[in-house]
Write a structure and sequence with these properties.
Belongs to the bacterial solute-binding protein 8 family. The protein contains 14 helices and 13 strands. By secondary structure, the protein is of the alpha/beta class.
Length: about 350
């Protein structure tokens, strides 16, 4: 493969190929400045680093693709993979010519054909031997990798923050802005400031929903996979002023029984809508399952629907919290009853 051979001959990272003997100069359009200090990309117990803004980026999962597009790096995306849903309208045109090389984890051969100098993955499992290839393998080939710490499987230092906070999400946005260069860094700062302001405004409104209890159902129609107390579901429910019935469960999500679901008897049910497990299919399951069909929230269809990409840690968490709170307005009678309760 031409990419692999170039790396072996030059023995330097892919983004420095232009500096190798026999390679054409990258020219004035290049954003790479080899005099810059390397930036460490530490997460999930793995340490990588990158020197100078990357020029050829592969994004695996919607959360990372949308982050890169929001920071103005669409012209550096050489591919995407494993997208959870169509990109939002605001990014669709910019990404129209970016190939989606796989609907699942791409084979490492497909990845290397793109000649990336950075791979950004939304799940830790994306960059494993069972996924798109091991991070150390890419590092050995001169390709930097990054998984947001919020996407790490384990919690702890150099791994996943638990519980997740908006500041953790903002730190990831800020880091990617620095990696991408000054223009992207400015965009990151602007985006974070805007989202902090939106959260402050939301915080002034959540008193009207305080006390309402919710079950967050992410996936799996056999044994419901619900939002637990450490991840994005808890983060968004807190921001919208809702009490998570299962906030005492460790981890970010957890499987529960239908008996537990029925015993929770929530005021509202948050349904995550994805192409592989739609909100509509969850509604059908709730009405067909004898243990949940008699719940008031089911009979009165007190459903709040959120798109899957808004429920993964990333730039859509704050808009997701705003959307969640706005949908609660449809249950104004319930809110008024809660407010008037002794």
């Amino acid at each position: 493969m031409r990419y692999r051979r170039a790396l072996i001959v030059c023995a330097v990272p892919a983004m420095a190929l232009g500096a190798c003997t026999g390679q054409a100069d990258a020219g004035p359009e290049s954003r790479t400045d080899q005099s810059e200090e390397p930036i460490e990309l530490a997460s999930c117990g793995y340490h990588s680093e990158i020197t100078g803004p990357p020029e050829r980026i592969l994004a695996i999962k919607s959360s990372t693709a949308e982050l890169l597009l929001a920071l103005g790096a669409g012209d550096r995306l050489v591919g995407t993979a494993f997208l959870d849903a169509p990109l939002p309208e605001e990014y669709a045109a910019e990404a129209a010519d970016v190939p989606e090389i796989s609907e699942q984890n791409p084979a490492s051969e497909l990845v290397l054909e793109l000649e990336p100098d950075l791979i950004v993955a939304g799940w830790e499992s994306n960059l494993t031997d069972a996924g798109a290839g091991d991070r150390q393998m890419y590092e050995d080939l001169g390709v930097a990798t990054w998984v947001p710490p919020s996407a790490c499987e384990q919690a702890g230092e150099d791994h996943r923050p638990a519980p997740l906070t908006f500041e953790d999400v903002f730190a990831e946005i800020e880091l990617m802005g620095r990696v991408l260069g000054p223009e992207a860094q400015a965009r990151a700062e602007e985006l974070i400031a805007e989202q902090r302001e939106q959260l402050a405004e939301l915080d002034e409104q959540i008193s009207e929903t305080a006390g309402l209890r919710a079950v967050w159902w992410s996936s799996n129609n056999q044994t419901p996979y619900v939002g637990a107390g450490e991840g994005a579901p808890q983060l968004l429910l807190d921001a919208a002023g809702l009490e998570n019935v299962f906030d005492d469960l460790p981890e970010r999500w957890e499987n529960i029984s239908w008996e537990d679901f029925a015993a929770a008897d929530p005021d509202v049910i948050v349904l995550v809508d994805s192409e592989w497990n739609s909100a509509a299919s969850k509604m059908e399951a709730l009405t067909e399952e004898p243990m949940t069909s008699e719940l008031t929230a089911v009979q009165e269809e007190r459903y709040i629907v959120l798109p899957f990409p808004a429920t993964e840690p990333g730039i859509r968490n704050v808009p997701g919290a705003l959307d969640l709170h706005a949908q609660l307005a449809e249950f104004s009678d319930l809110i008024e009853q809660e407010a008037s309760a002794p």
